[in-house]
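Recall the central idea of this unit: under ordinary conditions, the amino acid sequence of a chain determines the structure it adopts. In this exercise we apply that idea directly, starting from the sequence alone.
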Amino acid sequence: MNTKTLFVWAGLWLALLTRTVALAQTDEPQLTEQDWDRLIPALVQEDWAKAEPLAASYLARFTTEAALMGEEAATVRYMYLKCVSGLLAQKKLTKPAALAKLKGFEGRPVLTPSRPFRLKGLFNCFKLDETERAFFCCSANEGGSQIHTFETFEPADAKILAAAPQLENKEFRLGAIIQRIEAGGVTLPHLVLQFTQAQLFAQGQE
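Accordingly, the structure predicted from this sequence is:
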């Protein structure tokens, strides 16, 4: 991965953390700045074998229901989904093994990194799904040779979808609840993720 790409992806993950870290001042964060400094570079470099156990160990720190439903856990949970899907795409995990790692994730929140919205986008952006009733993202590796996830986000307020043309090229994050996790594909194995109650957070929104 070249230096320019590394900084772009690092910026996306750091943008995701901005709101969470700000809230962490009063929400008793479970992760330190050093923890993030270990995990984010591994994600940026797509070193899933390194990132996956790190993210798993961080998730284990959230032991109360309030913490498990909080934004910090939601951030790490999405990162963990990315790690598992990356290992699955590399065929370092079988589909049953990948799903076993994600057992109990349904009903828990996630917070995505900031991504651009593109009506005719392909990889690593938000767009409308085929029904135009939900947001969709096809997440892939940097080169687009491996599919990581097909993600569908049903919005909490469907009216936001009517404004989709005005969202073109704007960047935002989605916070949502995991509804269903499946695994698909043979040549290109990937996760199929269904989210509900999705809410849009504009980049920099507090």
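The chain has a mean pLDDT of 88.
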